[in-house]
Amino acid sequence: MERVLKGSPWAFNNHLLVLYRLQLGEDPLKVPLIYSPIWIQIHDVRVGLYSEKLATQLGKFWRQFLEYDGANLGKEIEIICA
Predict the structure, then answer these.
(1) Is the pTM above the cut of 0.85?
(2) Which domain of life is it from (predicted)?
(3) Is the predicted pLDDT of residue 74 greater than 60, yes or no?
């Protein structure tokens, strides 16, 4: 379950699968399942412009910046947004 929750977004039958872990006593009818984190890849950014600051700005433009992966710098920028 942890792997699925941390590895989202997930799809089933080409549809987004939104998951949420209920806390003890939490009413499942009051959980707003309206947002899901999503990876976004930004391609063709000039090498001198690759930075966490750029990724953060692009993520905030999308909606809400969550995380940045700089492991593949030189190929693309990967960010997680909600």
Answers:
(1) no
(2) Eukaryota
(3) no
